[in-house]
């Protein structure tokens, strides 16, 4: 009799657990982060204020591999890739680009620019689309594409058509210890001028216009934000629960020679 009661209780536990965990799972969005670069990258995440850290804020991703990460259905934040990392020494920074205080798990810290940012705003109301974009407002370190699982054109942000590292003006270049270009600063980051940063007297679309540097960014990566008031806004809205974020979706001769 006791064995029957125990079995019945366990069966009831399984039913209740399935019932309770179902909606929680449905209230999540999955990102498959894929590395098509011919070298490892260290993807990182940072949540906007009031939202939780996901995927510990950062992880190692070898070339050719994919990592699945899950976010709450109303999550807001950013995803980027770090390059040239070494966390086995006391050197600072720990990465050539996108570093977060020398840590593998950024745990909420924002990466050091210049870095290509995937910016995400998920909607708690599943009848509404999610919003995302790729921004070069803080500069560039790697190309990235974003799409839903069905790869719908409406939901897709493509990669770059040219190597921005190869096209980066000398005054915007970030070099590693070997003298290789590993990132390209935005004009705002490089010169800190209101006219480039779209602030103060230039804090409106009418006053802050495309400049020679943002036009170089836009020509190389037409689907990304090239400066703060880029128009038409390259913002995607797409209702889905699974997305692919791919680093180095395309390749050009000298773009990926350094790690």
UniProtKB/TrEMBL annotation:
SMART domains: THN
Chief location of this protein within or outside the cell: secreted
Keywords: Disulfide bond, Secreted, Signal
Entries under InterPro entries matching the protein: Osmotin/thaumatin-like_sf (IPR037176), Thaumatin (IPR001938)
GO cellular component: extracellular region
Signal peptide: 1-26
Claim: Secreted is one of the keywords in the record: yes
Family statement drawn from the similarity comment of this UniProt entry: Belongs to the thaumatin family.
Name of protein: Thaumatin-like protein
């Amino acid at each position: 009799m006791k064995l029957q009661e125990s079995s019945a209780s366990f069966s009831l536990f399984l039913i209740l657990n399935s019932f309770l965990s179902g909606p929680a799972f449905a209230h999540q969005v999955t990102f498959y982060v894929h590395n098509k670069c011919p070298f490892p990258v260290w993807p990182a995440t940072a949540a906007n204020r009031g939202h939780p850290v996901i995927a510990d804020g950062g992880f190692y991703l070898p070339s050719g591999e994919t990592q699945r990460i899950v976010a709450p259905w109303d999550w807001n934040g950013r995803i980027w890739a770090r390059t040239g990392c070494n966390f086995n020494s006391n050197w600072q920074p720990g990465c050539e680009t996108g570093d977060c205080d020398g840590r593998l798990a950024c745990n909420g810290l924002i990466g050091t620019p210049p870095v290509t940012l995937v910016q995400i705003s998920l909607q708690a109301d599943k009848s509404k689309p999610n919003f995302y974009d790729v921004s070069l407002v803080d500069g560039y370190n790697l190309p990235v594409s974003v799409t839903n699982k069905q790869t719908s054109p409406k939901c897709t942000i493509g990669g770059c058509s040219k190597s921005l590292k190869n096209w980066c003006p000398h005054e915007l270049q970030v070099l590693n210890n070997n003298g290789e270009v590993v990132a390209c600063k935005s004009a705002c980051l490089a010169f800190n001028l209101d006219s480039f940063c779209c602030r103060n007297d230039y804090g409106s679309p009418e006053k802050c216009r495309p400049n020679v540097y943002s036009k170089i960014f836009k020509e190389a990566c037409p689907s990304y934000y090239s400066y703060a008031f880029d128009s038409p806004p390259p913002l995607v809205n797409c209702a889905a629960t699974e997305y692919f974020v791919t680093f180095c979706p395309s390749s050009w001769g000298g773009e990926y020679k350094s790690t």
